[in-house]
Design a protein that fits this description.
Number of helices: 9
Order of helices and strands: EEEHEEEEEHHHHEHEHEEHH
Oligomer: single chain
Strand order of the largest sheet: 8-9-10-3-11-12
């Protein structure tokens, strides 16, 4: 069963009097409990589409459903009980972390928004959640600026998970952190996948997509040019664009 589905979605922006199609009539399915990757070069439209799935960007055409229920009502998305079900992790963790708020307080605040807990219980739950992300109790009481890039990204994942969502959408989560932090974050995502969380993983890093995804969509100029089981697409790509992307992986040539 598909937990998240997009049908004929388009997003058009206007720039200097010209209409620019960032996303052009695309269809997408996220089966429950699976990880689906969206890969493409910078400017391919993948981040815009991720924002549509998360409800942060309204489409100019088409629709998105969560468990067959439309996420959009007028200009509002994910209202009522749906609000906590789909959460997003951004490339820049400052997009979800208040720089003036200690990490533990930011997570506790999110917990109280989505769960019935008093302040003391929320702080304890936040510390436990951050520790599960590999952030110590001492680091939990620091401000975002005092943490490493990898720690900030893991804290932003914790904030998203504080809502206990059914779907996590991660937009380039590894691109702004060093190699060591990437390995830790990939291990974290692997644990989340094993827990049964449904994940949309957006990245230009094909290695990350191949490691974590069950299914992959390849995006170019706002459209999906190829899709399929991850290993099938990587081992037997049909489109020239996909072949070009795969051949750009270090040590890999087609």
């Amino acid at each position: 069963m598909n937990i998240l589905e997009a049908t004929d979605v388009s997003v058009t922006f206007e720039s200097f009097g010209q209409q620019i199609k960032a996303v052009d009539h695309v269809n997408f399915q996220l089966p429950r409990g699976k990880t689906v990757g969206i890969v493409g070069e910078s400017g391919s439209g993948k981040s815009t589409f991720a924002r549509v799935l998360s409800g942060l960007q309204l489409p100019t055409g088409g629709s998105v459903t969560y468990l067959n229920q439309p996420i959009q009502n007028g200009k509002q998305t994910y209202q009522g009980a749906l609000r906590k079900e789909v959460q997003m992790v951004f490339q820049d963790p400052y997009g979800s972390l208040n720089p003036r708020m200690r990490i533990v307080k930011a997570i506790a605040e999110a917990i109280t928004q989505h769960q019935e807990m008093d302040k003391k219980s929320a702080i304890a739950a936040a510390i436990k959640l951050l520790e599960s992300m590999g952030i110590s109790g001492a680091d939990a009481f620091k401000y975002p600026r005092s943490l490493s890039g990898g720690q900030r990204q893991r804290a932003s994942v914790a904030r998203a998970l504080s809502a206990q969502p059914a779907v996590l959408i991660a937009d380039e989560p590894t691109s702004a952190i060093d190699q060591s932090a990437q390995s830790q974050l990939l291990g974290l995502f692997n644990d989340l996948i094993k827990s049964g969380l449904s994940i949309v993983l957006v990245s230009h890093d094909l290695g990350v997509i191949r490691y974590l995804s069950d299914y992959v969509y390849v995006m170019k100029d706002g459209v999906f040019v190829e899709s399929g089981d991850t290993e099938e697409v990587f081992n037997n790509p049909k489109e020239e664009y996909t072949k070009k992307l795969i051949s750009s992986i270090p040590g890999r040539a087609l």
